[in-house]
Amino acid sequence: MPHIKMARKSTDTDMTPFVDIAFLILSFFIMATKFKPPEPVPIETPGSVSSIILKEENAMLITIDKDSKVYVSINAKKDQGKLTTIIEGINTSRSLGLTPAQIQNFKNTLIVGVPFGSLKTLLNLPPAEQAKVGQPGIPVLDTLNNELVWWIAEAKKAFAGEKLLYLIKGDNHSKYPSFEAVVNALRKNEEFKYNLVTSQEGAPEGTELYKERQGKK
Amino acid sequence: MASIDSGGGDNHKKGPGVKKAKKLSTRVDMTPMVDLGFLLITFFIFTATMSSPVAMDLNMPKDTKDLKDQTEVKQSGALTIMLGKGDQVYYYEGELTPENASTSFKQTTFKGIRDVIINKRKEVISNYKGSPACEQKAKDKGRDPKTECADEDFVVVIKPDDDATYKNTVDILDEMTINNVKRFAMVKISDTEKELVKATEQASGVK
After folding, report:
1. Contact B166/A36, CB-based, under 8 Å?
2. Would you call B198 exposed, middle or buried from its count of C-beta atoms within 10 A (0-12, 13-18, 19+)?
3. Which of A85, B5, B65, B91 has its CA 20 to 30 A from that of A130?
4. CA distances (Å), B193 to each of B72, B96, B102, B108, B204, in order?
């Protein structure tokens, strides 16, 4: 009687294609990932149908957080000297009496959200610790003493002759009066064009904009 | 799995001094490599920021004290939208007078306001009688005068209340883009309107 011998199959599988795919995906993600810049203040931006990609170079970013506190940060990566010009301008116009070391430290400060009175204390801290300190926000709601006006004025001076974008990044839950105060501060400086930072959203179906966008395609 | 053959159990007799070269498997255990690969993939998926933020343009008018420079708004084409607490929207058409306040002041939500805007726009377009000045301008620019001027009188006035959130403001500005409203303005809310909003909020129990 012939004896049938079952071939013993190996439990090993060839993993090479599997690894190939895994690393292909991996390389895709490595290339496509743009790391989030460190966010000193977490902001949940509202959505809008706008499709203009945000430009962040040479921009003054005014942040309004969920408690309606206002912060300011200036993005001038190409020319760090501008930041020094701004803080020196603030120092003289508001006679704060900052030391050269504090002025130097402003370059590394990610975001400022303190009244002028506390600016000295903030600039004494190293940048890593500044983020940990709860900043009370720049006072804007008092129309007579809207400190943001000074910040904008100095930034405008430092960027004279160049294009400076004004970005307003507000949180979903921030209240309208803060936003209004920010806009008023900009208007006082004769600046009437702003960019609101939002996250992207599609145009709702059946509306005018939807038809227009469909027609273009 | 890669395993080293110790060659312990072979029965070949080759005589003394004859060494046989061991045949090593060319297979490598890839499991740790795959593990690591997928770990990195997961990491990058989580940290990836796929949607880049977009910018929304906002242009504000210059403050003018001179009455001549101020834009006149026709009552028939005006729609005033107020934003209140709890994502509520209030609106009225034309002018608000003490007599018509109870009938023309209405409450809606962000979902409902779109239809209000669309209907008002249609109404304004259907009432269009022709404006030679605007049509001439459109012709000069090489645009169709009919579509350019029919909604010329349509103006939306946005008045956010102190309790409105920033999201509400952006949403209503977005609504202007969505519905192709060319003329709109953000104006400070007046005291009478504020009181009306407050009263309606209390009556309907909006928190």
Report:
1. no
2. middle
3. A85
4. 20, 9, 12, 15, 16
Chain A residues touching residue B166 (CB < 8 angstroms) = 46, 64, 170-176, 178-179
**Which of A21, A36, A75, A175 would you mutate first to test chain B, the one with the most B CBs within 10 A?**
A175
Residue B1: its pLDDT value, please?
47
In this structure, what DSSP letter does residue B103 have?
A: H
What region, left, alpha or beta, does residue B86 occupy, with left being phi > 0 and alpha being psi -120 to 50 degrees? Answer: left
A window 35-74, beta carbon within 8 A of B? 35-36, 45-55, 64
Cβ-based contacts of B62 with chain A (< 8 Å): 187, 190, 192
How do the pLDDT tens digits run along chain B, 207 residues long?
Answer: 444 544 444 455 556 666 677 777 777 777 888 888 888 888 888 877 666 778 888 888 777 666 555 666 777 788 899 998 888 898 888 887 777 777 788 888 888 888 888 888 888 888 877 777 777 777 787 777 777 777 778 888 899 988 888 888 899 988 888 888 888 888 888 888 888 888 888 888 776
Interface test with B, best of A20, A26, A168 (most B CBs within 10 A): A26
Q: Which residues pair with B71 in a beta bridge?
A: none
Looking at the complex, does the CB of residue A194 fall below 8 Å from at least one CB of chain B?
Answer: yes
Q: What residues in B contact A196, CB-CB < 8 Å?
A: 55-58, 170, 173
Token pair 């952006």 in the structure block, residue: B170
Please tell me whether residue B186 adopts helix, strand or coil conformation: strand
Task: Supply the Cα-derived Rg of chain A in whole angstroms.
Answer: 26
Residue B3's pLDDT is what?
46
What is the CA A120 to chain-centroid distance, rounded? Answer: 24
Q: Is the ipTM of this complex over 0.90?
A: no
